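Hi Prof. W.,

I finally got the GNAT family N-acetyltransferase prediction working! I wasn't sure whether to trim anything, so I left the full sequence exactly as given:
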Amino acid sequence: MISQVEIRPLAQEDFERVIALGNLVHGDGYLDEQMLSQIQKKAFKSNINANFVAYLDDRLVGFRLTYAPGNWSLDRWCSPELWPVEPQDCCYFKCNTVAEEARGLGIGKALLDSSIEACKVQGALAGVSHLWKQSPENSAVGYFTKAGGLLIKEHPERWNNNPDHPDYVCVLCGSDCHCVACEMILTF
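And this is what came out:
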């Protein structure tokens, strides 16, 4: 863990900052209070929270949102027949976000590691994610691959007209998003 960065479980008092950072990095409408409340509920299993935040000098610089195993549903963007473990044994890595000025400090990895440890205690054997291929320098796929993640399948236009994010405006494409989601799995 990075010594000057505090990594801790996401709490209600972090919501406003998490929403602001998520919308700044990913685009307007990416997160709102209702959505984040639902995500937070899905993070808990056995009284353990799989969501984490990172603070540097009392300033939120990153967050990791993760659904506990058994607390999320497969959708048409999931390919469980290609996964090495059963879906009920997988957590879902929803989002990892690091402020631009804090990238390269190992915060994304520290957040992922914290989430993995919580999910292992919750009973997960692996985690699935849909990573943003068009992230700056494809850093999302790169860091997940470096952590041991394997590419399962690419899904073009994953976030276009997504009912989970009806007001989403992509920072690259605008309201008509054509970004690719890389479905990846990381076994523990």
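Helices lie at 15-26, 33-43, 107-122, 139-146. Does that look reasonable to you?

Thanks,
D.
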